[in-house]
Structures are given as structure tokens and as C-alpha cells.
Design a protein that fits this description.
By secondary structure, the chain is mostly helical. The chain has 13 helices and two strands; from the N terminus they run E-E-H-H-H-H-H-H-H-H-H-H-H-H-H. It has a two-stranded antiparallel ribbon with strand order 1-2. The longest helix is centred in the middle third of the chain and has 22 residues. It starts with a strand and ends in an 8-residue tail after the last helix. This is Methylmalonyl-CoA mutase cobalamin-binding subunit.
Length: 268
């Protein structure tokens, strides 16, 4: 029950006592044998009901389900994101948006109460959680995404949320998750990573190419902010901007995210 200015939505609906086109109560009573009081829904309750429904629709549209298997041969984001963390973000975002809109209408809402009510109404989403055993079983041992740790998924979720907050294209996330899994597997196997042309990546080779150094600097910044491993950074360093290497789009996405960091958040 949403509380606004000390009045619940339900009680607010009974606050005013007649509609614009009032049906005579005597006629209603005579036809039904029951005493009836015709009431009007208050503007406050009407506004809150509309805002709450918008918040509900947003949550149902934006939430992420745990990985349930490949869809037409493709993975879903639940295969590499922390589902619980992202869905909590969705609830928080929905509440913040509703509070902003309600405040503009002169209505004060308590965020903690609102989040609790949104989770109660959308209990199907609020109850979703990560199941690492099920996720890895469904992915199969051959999938590099099975190499992701809980910490990796947490970091990927932070990147995904930041990108959505900035209104960026998140299509590179699948590739980033895959590269993270590959780098974990390589590191676990003790493999020294080589660039696409077969040469070992060295500091000297990096410093020879200004553009590549800029990409390395961007990746290093992401390492501090989102916990990207040095091994993953080495993977991204091998991107060929002039070729069709998917790593190029990944590092471009990460650079765009860093560049947007100083900009105000894009409104939803």
C-alpha cells in the first residue's frame, strides 16, 4: 500500500464523495435493496496508480532471468551477469523514476517502502537468483562462459549497468564476457597469450603504436574501475582496428564507457 503524505492509495480513493455524474443513491438503493455510497477516486490515487503501473511494466520489461539454456543457439545475458544484482538495480531504478515523477506532482514517497512494495508486487522477479551449478551445467564444459567466476559476473554486471545508465549500446557485452572467459581459461592453463599475428605481446610492441597504447590506457583504466584482469587486458590489446577482430568493438565500447563517465547520466 503506497503511503503519500500520510494517506494510503486505498484510503485516498474514499476521500472524495461524489462523481461528476452522480447516480441518485435513492435509485440505487431502491433497485438493489442495498445502501450504496458513490465515491470518486482522488487525483492523487489516480496518479499514483498510473505511476506504479509504469514502474511495474519497466521491471517486467528490463529484468533478467537466470540462464535457462541456449535460445536458437545463442546465449542470454543471464549466462554471464549477476542476475540478482542487476534486478535489484532495476527495482531501484523504477523506484527512483517513480519518486521523481511523484515529486513533480506534489506527492512524497518513501523509497524503502516503495522498493518493498514493488518487490512484493513483482515477486516473480524479486525471487530470481543466481544458480552457478545450474548455469555451468546448462552452458557445458566447452563454453568459455563456464570459466567466469562470481566476481567476474559481478564486474560484468557493473559494466552493463554503467553502460545502460549512460545510454550506450551494450551489444559488445556478449563478446566482452566471452573474452573474459577465454582469458581465464588461458591463465588457468598457463598459456602465454599471443596476438592475432602470432607475435608475443610486449611493452615495446605496444609503445610502437600510439593508437594501440591509447586502447591499452583505456583498458587499464577499466581494470581499476571494473576489475578487468591483466590477462583480459592483454587479450584486448591484440585487437586489430583495421580488421574484423571482434575485440576492436569491445575495446571501443569500453573506451566509450570511460569517455561517458564524466558526462551527466542520460535520463531514462
Amino acid at each position: 500500500m503506497i503511503i503519500t503524505n500520510g494517506v494510503s492509495v486505498q484510503s485516498a480513493t474514499l476521500r472524495q464523495s461524489q462523481t461528476n455524474e452522480t447516480v441518485p443513491q435513492e435509485a440505487i438503493a431502491a433497485s438493489s435493496g442495498v445502501s450504496v455510497t458513490v465515491t470518486q477516486i482522488s487525483p492523487t490515487a489516480t496518479k499514483l496508480a498510473a505511476l506504479f503501473d509504469e514502474a511495474r511494466q519497466y521491471i517486467q520489461k528490463e529484468h533478467i532471468e537466470p540462464f535457462q539454456g541456449y535460445e536458437a543457439g545463442n546465449i542470454t545475458k543471464g549466462a554471464y551477469l549477476n542476475v540478482k544484482k542487476f534486478n535489484d538495480y532495476v527495482f531501484d531504478k523504477a523506484a527512483d523514476t517513480m519518486i521523481t515523477q511523484a515529486t513533480a506532482a506534489g506527492i512524497t514517497l518513501n523509497k524503502d517502502d516503495l522498493v518493498a512494495q514493488l518487490k512484493s508486487t513483482n515477486s516473480d522477479v524479486a525471487s530470481l537468483n543466481n544458480d552457478e551449478t545450474a548455469r555451468k551445467t546448462l552452458l557445458g564444459d566447452a563454453s568459455v562462459l563456464a570459466e567466469l567466476s562470481y566476481s567476474d559476473m559481478d564486474n560484468l554486471t557493473s559494466i552493463y549497468i554503467a553502460a545502460k545508465e549512460k545510454g550506450l549500446d551494450t551489444s559488445a557485452m556478449d563478446g566482452l564476457a566471452g573474452e573474459m572467459g577465454i582469458s581465464n581459461k588461458m591463465h588457468r592453463m598457463g598459456v602465454v597469450y599471443f596476438s592475432s599475428n602470432g607475435s608475443e605481446i610486449t611493452d615495446a610492441a605496444v609503445n610502437d603504436t600510439p593508437n594501440q597504447q591509447a586502447r591499452v590506457n583505456a583498458a587499464n583504466n577499466l581494470s581499476g574501475k571494473f576489475g578487468l584482469s591483466n590477462f583480459l587486458i592483454n587479450t584486448l590489446m591484440a585487437a586489430d582496428l583495421s580488421g574484423a577482430d571482434g575485440r576492436s568493438s569491445i575495446i571501443s565500447f569500453l573506451k566509450e564507457l570511460l569517455m561517458a563517465d564524466s558526462q551527466p547520466l542520460k535520463s531514462q
